[in-house]
Amino acid sequence: MTKTRAKTTKKAPPAEAEPPADKAPPKTTELKVRRPNAPARARGADLLGAALEAQGFTVQDEPGLGRRFAFEGGTYYLVSAEGDDTFYHLLYPNFWELESDDEYVRALYACDTVNREAKLVKLHTAENDVWAGVEALHDTPAAFAAQVPRYLSYLQESVRAFRDVMLAAAEELAEAEA
């Protein structure tokens, strides 16, 4: 017994009707409600700054970058994400300076080692330094601010782990050369 397929013919899609010449298509406009001289992100940043200050942080504006605050001897940044009010980036830059190409290679290995194990934290190289950051999505600035102490502990834990890997690699290198 042989099976045969029925041939189907494709119908051309119907042509879109042209609007009459005397009737123009309706214009669509995007409505943005905003207070004069107050961009949407600035209001969120004000709320975030207030929420962090309520937790005891002293927050300062960093033009072109976002907000800056100190915590246990380090300087941390809250980097603004243009056009995304739910995205927050807590950054701890320049915590380890890279002084040679060999050290840069060891730093890449250490970053990879820590990134595999760390919660939420990303370590990466930037020019001749190593940076750590946490990226998170929160509905409100207050929701993010409530998690900042936890994120700071994750960052500090990851930086300690990175330093441990780097120091162990330096010790191994010194022993190999001796």
Describe the protein's topology:
Blueprint: H1 40-54, E1 60-62, E2 66-71, E3 74-79, E4 87-97, H2 101-117, E5 121-126, E6 129-137, H3 141-177
Antiparallel strand pairs: 1-2, 2-3, 3-4, 4-6, 5-6
Helix pairs in contact: 1-3, 2-3
Polypeptide structure, described:
The chain is of the alpha+beta class and 178 residues long. 39% of the residues lie in helices and 23% in strands. The chain contains three helices and six strands; from the N terminus they run H-E-E-E-E-H-E-E-H. It has a six-stranded antiparallel beta sheet with strand order 1-2-3-4-6-5. The radius of gyration is 27 Å and the shape is elongated. The N and C termini lie far apart (83 Å). Residues 1-14 and 24-42 have low confidence and may be disordered.
**Structural class of the helices, strands and pairings?**
alpha+beta
What count of helical segments does DSSP give?
3
Radius of gyration: 27 Å
Q: Tell me about the biggest sheet?
A: 6 strands, antiparallel
By DSSP, the count of extended strands is 6
Strand content: 15-25%
Report the average pLDDT across residues. Answer: 80
- Order of the strands making up the biggest sheet: 1-2-3-4-6-5
- Summarize the helix and strand pattern as letters: HEEEEHEEH
Indicate the low-confidence ranges by residue numbers.
1-14, 24-42
The proportion of residues forming helix, as a percent range, comes to 25-40%
How far the N terminus sits from the C terminus, by CA atoms, comes to 83 Å
Rough shape? elongated
